[in-house]
Amino acid sequence: MEYVKKGSRNRMNINKNHKGINKEFSNQILLGMISILLIPILLIILLMTQQMSYHKKMESFISNYGKEITDVVANNINYFISNDESNKFSIKDIDWDKLIPDDTDNIYIIVDIKRNLIYRSKGFELDSNHIKQILNSHNYAIKNNGYNDDQFIFVTSEISKDGQVLGTLIILSKDVNLSSNYKQFQLFSILGLLIGVIISFKLLYKVSDSIISRYVSINDSYKKVNHEKEIYLEKYLRSEKLVTMGRFASGIAHEIGNPLSSIISSTQILKKYELSEEEKTDYYDKILNDSKKIDLLIKEFLDFRKYKDEAKIKVNINDIICESIDNISDNKKNHKVELIMDLSKSLPHIIADKSRISMAFTNIIQNAYQSIHDKGFIHIRTLKFEDGIRIRIRDSGHGIKEEDMKKIFDPFFTTKDVGKGFGLGLFICMQIIHSHNGTISVHSNYGEGTIFTIDLNLDKEGSGEKENTNC
After folding, report:
1. Rg, Å, the chain Cα set
2. Cα gap 251→424, rounded to integer Å
3. In the CATH hierarchy, which fold is given to the domain comprising 308-467?
4. Average pLDDT of 398-420?
5. pLDDT digits over 126-148, tens only?
6. Contacts from 179-185 at CB under 8 Å and sequence distance 24+?
C-alpha cells in the first residue's frame, strides 16, 4: 500500500498550462497556414489539368487540320513511288519540287528512316535549329503529331513502298490563331496563379492576425488569472500554515494538558487530605512520571527547534545523508542492522536549507533503525530522477499497518510505545520537504518493511555542478 503527500506544485502546473496554450495556438496557426497554402497548390493542379486537356484538344485539332494536306501530298508521293518499277529506287532520286506544292504558308520536309534530311521546301522562314530539333527529337516519332507553341505546328505521314517505310513527310504550318490562343491560355494561367497566391497570402495575414489577436487576448486573461491565482495561493498557504499551527498548538496543549491536569489533581489531594506514607509515595511517583512526560515532550520539541531556518545554498544530497547518519547517536542505532549505501556518484547539486533537510533524513533513518527489533537492513539510495533527485530509504522492519497509513504524517500520531515519542517527527519531515517544493511518499506492507521516497526538484542555479560523493 502506498500513501503520498505532495508539496505545492501550482507554479509548475501553471507553466504546463501556459505551454499547453502555446502549443494549441501553434497548432492552429500551422493548420491555418496549411489550409491557405493548399489554395495555390490546388490552383496549380487545376491549371496543369486544364493545360493537359488543352494540349490534347490542340493535338486533335492539329491532326484534323493537317489531315487533308498530308493525305493529298502523301498519296501523290506514295502513288509515284509505287509505280516506279526500278529496283534501285531511292527517295533521294525523286524530284520533290514536282510533287510538293508551291506553298508559302507551309514547309514540307522529307526525311529517310534514319531521320536524315532529304528535302526541305521554301515556305515561310524558320530557324534551322527548330528543324534540327524536330529531326533529332524522339518526342516526334513517325505517326505522332506535335506542335511548337511559339511559331508553328506540324504533322507527319509515312512514305512507303510495298508496305516498307522509306521515310517521313513532315508538314510545318504557321497558325497565328493557335499560337495566339495558346499564349493567351498561358497568360491567363499565370495571372490566375498570381491572383491565387495573393489571395492566399491575404487570407493567411487575416487568419494569422486573428489568431494572434485572440492569443494576445487570452494571454492577457491568462496573466490576470495567473496573478489572481498567485494571490489566492499565497492566502491559501498562509491559511494552511495557520491551520497547521492551530493543529500543532492543539496537540501540544492536549499532550501537556493531560499530565498537567494529573499533576494538579495529585497536588490538590496531597494538600487537602491526610494520607499515609504509602499513599503519599504513590501520588509523588505519579507527579514525577507526569512531569517526565511533559519534560520529554518539551525536549522532543526543542530537538526539532534546534534546527534553525537557514539560507538555502548549493548542497550535495549525498553529503547531507552522511551527516544525517552521523547525527544519530550510537545508543539509538541497532548495531545488528546492516546499513547499505547506494549513493549516485554523479548527482547534481540542489538549492536547499542544509540544516532542515538533514533533520528530515535523520528522523526517517532513525525511525528505520527503531522499526528493526533484531537483525535486518537499511538500504539508502540516491539517483537522478526526471527533473530532480530521488532519495529512497528502505528498511526491513515491522512495517506500518494499513489503517495507520493515512495518519502517518499527522502531528502527534505515533505507533511507538508510550514515552518513546509523540508523533512529531514525520509531520515535521513532511513540512520540510514541502517547503523545498518536494514530495514525500511511503509504501509499506505490514510485517515486511517500509520504503520512504523523497523527490526534490533541481534548481537552475545548482543543477550544473556534480561531485563524486559517498559515505
Report:
1. 50
2. 10
3. Heat Shock Protein 90 (3.30.565)
4. 77
5. 666 666 666 665 433 333 334 44
6. 179/149, 179/150, 179/151, 182/54, 182/58, 182/149, 183/149, 185/51, 185/54
